[in-house]
Q: What sequence folds into this?
């Protein structure tokens, strides 16, 4: 598990060079616009509603002394709370709407890494890719909300609340990694088979999602580069797993997937 998480993180190191080498930037125009517009929408929500949420949090402090300080802290906490909750739909909206544009990227990476593939891919159209992306991300969104909402309440418990905060981060990272891996899996597996494949490779999904979420803390730039970089990283690791477990058969002329440059 730990090794898989590390591999999922390490896959990011060679993403930029692979994007330039294969000329993949042309595929990212629409997804970048989707990411920026969606991010701007949720950033606006945070800006306008942080004070309102902070107001209700501040009511917990019933004493007069320190009320102004606690009110300021409550506004910050309100903004952070909204940001955590907004991050959940943001990820899934961007990944779902970007699926028809990310699938060709993943396919090109797979062809480059594996060469002459004897495996017969599932042929899907633009609308089928979009439909699957929406289905996968709605499924993950519902599960993520069911897990995260109760944990958000528990984060307000002094000291041990930090543990629940880390757990929320890990849950969000797992599901975003899941979505990034599915751009490759959709050519090889049906819906239920993909879910089982990710269950067997939780570490890869988690490692990929950890960097994805951390990149979103980079103002503006993070929302621009997060999807291209994370999809390339997820694709390389997913292809490795598919090959190692015999889901992809290679010709003798194909390069060894274990020697993929990082």
A:
């Amino acid at each position: 598990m730990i090794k898989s998480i590390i591999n999922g993180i390490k896959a990011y190191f060679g993403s930029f060079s692979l994007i330039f080498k294969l000329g993949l930037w042309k595929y990212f125009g629409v997804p970048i616009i989707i990411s920026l517009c969606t991010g701007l929408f949720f950033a606006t929500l945070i800006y306008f509603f942080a004070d309102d949420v902070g107001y209700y949090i501040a009511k917990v402090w019933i004493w007069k002394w320190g009320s102004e300080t606690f009110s300021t802290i409550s506004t910050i906490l309100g903004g952070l709370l909204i940001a955590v909750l907004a991050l959940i739909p943001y990820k899934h909206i961007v990944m779902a709407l970007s699926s028809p544009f990310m699938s060709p990227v993943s396919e090109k990476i797979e062809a480059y890494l594996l060469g002459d593939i004897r495996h017969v891919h599932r042929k899907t159209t633009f609308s089928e890719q979009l439909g699957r992306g929406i289905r996968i991300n709605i499924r993950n969104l519902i599960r993520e909300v069911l897990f995260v909402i109760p944990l958000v309440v528990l984060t307000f418990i002094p000291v041990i609340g930090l543990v629940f905060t880390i757990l929320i981060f890990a849950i969000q990272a797992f599901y975003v990694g899941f979505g990034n891996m599915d751009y490759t899996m959709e050519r090889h597996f049906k819906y239920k088979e993909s879910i089982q494949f990710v269950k067997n490779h939780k570490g890869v999904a988690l490692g990929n999602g950890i960097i994805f979420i951390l990149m979103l803390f980079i103002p503006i730039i993070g929302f621009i580069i997060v999807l291209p970089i994370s999809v390339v990283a997820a694709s390389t690791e997913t292809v490795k797993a598919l090959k190692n477990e015999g889901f992809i058969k290679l010709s003798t002329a194909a390069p060894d997937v274990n020697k993929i440059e990082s």
Observations:
- Residues 251-255 have pLDDT under 50 and may be disordered.
- The chain has one domain: 2-30+98-259.
